C-alpha cells in the first residue's frame, strides 16, 4: 500500500503529530526514545497559515494568546521565514525567556529512482537485530535501532559509514534522520540513502518527511538534489 499525496499545507499537522507526543493538542514530549522535553512553542508556517502548538508547561491563557497571534498572521513566502518571530518571543518571555530556538524548512520526499552507491560502497536495509553493525561508527543508532525502523545504511566493506533512519515515527508519517562519517561526506550518500529509505516508508503506507535548519547546508543540498517539496518552515522555541 502507498500513501496518497496530501496538499502541502495538510502535511504540517501530520508532521507535528510525528515530531511530538500530544495530549489534548498540547505538546507533552518529543516523539523520541526517552521522551525528551518538547519546545515550549512549535510554530509551523505554510503558504496559507501559521499554526502554533505549545507545551503543557505554558500557561493556558498564554497558549490562547499564542494561538490567536498565529491565526492572525498573514501568509509569507516560506523562504523568508528565517528567524523566530519577535512577537512570539515577546509573548513567551512572559512565561520565561526563550533560551534556544531552531528555524528551518520541512520537505516532503518525492518518489524518485534509486541513486546508485558510489563505487566500492554498498547500500542495504538493516533490521532491528543488526545493531552490532553500528556500534563502532554510529553507537547512538546501535542503541536504538529497533526504534529507528526503517533504517538504510551505506557500508565500506563491513563498516557502516552513513545511515538514514526514522528519527521520528508517527505511524502516518516518518521523519528522516541522516548521518555520514566525515571521511565519506561529499559523495552523495545521504541522497541515495534518503531515496531508498523513503521507498521503505511508503511501503508501510506512510509519508516520508525531511526537515532541517537553514544553516545546515549539507542537509539543504540533499533536499535540493532530490527536488523535495517545501511545505512548511518550522520554528521551535525553548
State the gist of this model.
It is built from 6 helices and 11 strands. The chain is α+β, with helices and mostly antiparallel strands and 238 residues long.
Structure, described:
- The protein is of the alpha+beta class and 238 residues long.
- Helices cover 25% and strands 29% of the residues.
- The chain has 6 helices and 11 strands.
- The strands form 2 sheets. A 9-stranded mixed β-sheet has the order 4-3-11-5-10-9-8-7-6, sandwiched between helices. Strands 1-2 form a two-stranded antiparallel sheet.
- Strand 1 (20-23) and strand 2 (26-30) form a beta hairpin.
- Helix 2 (60-71) packs antiparallel against helix 3.
- It is globular, with a radius of gyration of 18 Å.
- The chain starts with 10 loop residues before the first helix and ends with a strand.
Topology:
Layout: H1 11-19, E1 20-23, E2 26-30, E3 41-45, E4 50-54, H2 60-71, H3 86-93, E5 101-108, E6 122-125, H4 139-144, E7 151-156, E8 159-169, E9 173-180, H5 189-203, E10 207-211, H6 217-225, E11 229-237
Parallel strand pairs: 9-10
Antiparallel strand pairs: 1-2, 3-4, 3-11, 5-10, 5-11, 6-7, 7-8, 8-9
Quickly give the structural class: alpha+beta
The CA-CA distance between the termini, in Å, is 38 Å
SSE pattern, N- to C-terminal:
HEEEEHHEEHEEEHEHE
Number of helices: 6
> Cα-atom Rg, whole angstroms?
18 Å
Question: Major β-sheet, in short?
Answer: 9 strands, mixed
| Estimated helix fraction | 10-25%
The amount of beta strand, in percent, is 25-35%
- Unreliable stretches covering 5 or more consecutive residues: none
Overall pLDDT: 95
Spatial order of the strands forming the largest sheet: 4-3-11-5-10-9-8-7-6
What's the count of strands? 11
Amino acid at each position: 500500500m502507498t500513501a496518497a499525496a496530501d496538499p502541502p499545507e495538510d502535511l504540517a499537522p501530520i508532521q507535528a503529530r510525528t515530531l511530538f507526543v500530544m495530549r489534548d493538542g498540547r505538546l507533552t514530549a518529543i516523539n523520541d526514545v526517552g521522551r525528551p522535553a518538547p519546545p515550549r512553542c512549535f510554530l509551523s508556517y505554510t503558504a496559507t497559515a501559521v499554526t502554533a502548538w505549545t507545551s503543557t508547561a505554558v500557561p493556558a491563557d498564554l497558549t490562547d494568546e499564542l494561538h490567536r497571534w498565529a491565526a492572525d498572521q498573514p501568509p509569507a513566502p516560506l523562504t523568508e521565514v528565517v528567524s523566530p518571530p519577535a512577537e512570539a518571543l515577546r509573548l513567551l518571555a512572559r512565561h520565561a525567556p526563550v533560551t534556544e530556538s531552531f528555524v528551518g524548512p520541512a520537505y516532503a520526499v518525492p518518489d524518485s529512482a534509486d541513486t546508485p552507491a558510489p563505487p566500492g560502497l554498498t547500500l542495504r536495509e538493516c533490521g532491528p537485530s543488526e545493531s552490532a553493525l553500528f556500534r563502532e561508527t554510529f553507537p547512538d543508532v546501535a542503541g536504538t535501532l529497533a526504534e529507528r525502523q526503517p533504517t538504510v545504511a551505506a557500508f565500506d566493506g563491513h563498516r557502516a559509514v552513513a545511515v538514514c533512519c526514522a528519527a521520528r515515527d508517527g505511524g502516518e508519517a516518518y521523519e528522516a534522520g541522516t548521518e555520514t562519517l566525515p571521511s565519506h561526506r561529499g559523495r552523495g550518500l545521504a541522497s541515495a540513502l534518503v531515496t531508498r529509505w523513503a521507498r521503505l516508508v511508503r511501503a508501510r503506507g506512510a509519508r516520508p518527511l525531511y526537515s532541517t535548519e537553514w544553516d545546515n547546508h549539507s542537509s539543504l543540498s540533499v533536499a535540493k538534489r532530490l527536488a523535495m517539496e517545501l511545505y512548511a518552515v518550522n520554528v521551535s522555541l525553548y
